[in-house]
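Anyone up for a design puzzle?
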């Protein structure tokens, strides 16, 4: 299956350097967060999880592991705030053929070991 780098997707609808809207936060708290200096976070990964992270880094054409984690955080934040747990997720191919269908709660990570 051919993949397209997430960097190459059309983002013409967004302003250069803009940050996606963050739901359920006041504008003041968002501005405060932007003013804080970056903080270093150290994560412990199993060998399998690190392999998966590196595979995603390559697949997404990301320059760093941190870039993959930031992208995943944005996606999970959107998912957790916008998709109800009882929703059904459907994945459609280009020809509108159903590729997958599953309950959203499977992506909420209950009982996850990592």
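Challenge accepted. My sequence:
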């Amino acid at each position: 299956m051919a993949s397209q780098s997430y960097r190459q997707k059309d983002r013409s609808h967004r302003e250069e350097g803009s940050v996606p809207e963050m739901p359920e936060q006041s504008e003041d708290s968002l501005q405060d967060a932007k003013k804080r200096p970056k903080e270093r976070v150290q994560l412990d990964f199993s060998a399998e999880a690190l392999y998966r992270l590196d595979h995603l880094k390559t697949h997404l054409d990301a320059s760093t592991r941190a870039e993959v984690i930031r992208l995943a955080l944005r996606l999970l934040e959107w998912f957790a705030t916008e998709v109800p747990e009882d929703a059904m997720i459907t994945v459609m191919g280009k020809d509108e053929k159903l590729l997958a269908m599953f309950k959203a709660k499977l992506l909420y990570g209950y009982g996850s070991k990592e």
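A detail worth pointing out: The two ends are 27 Å apart (CA to CA).
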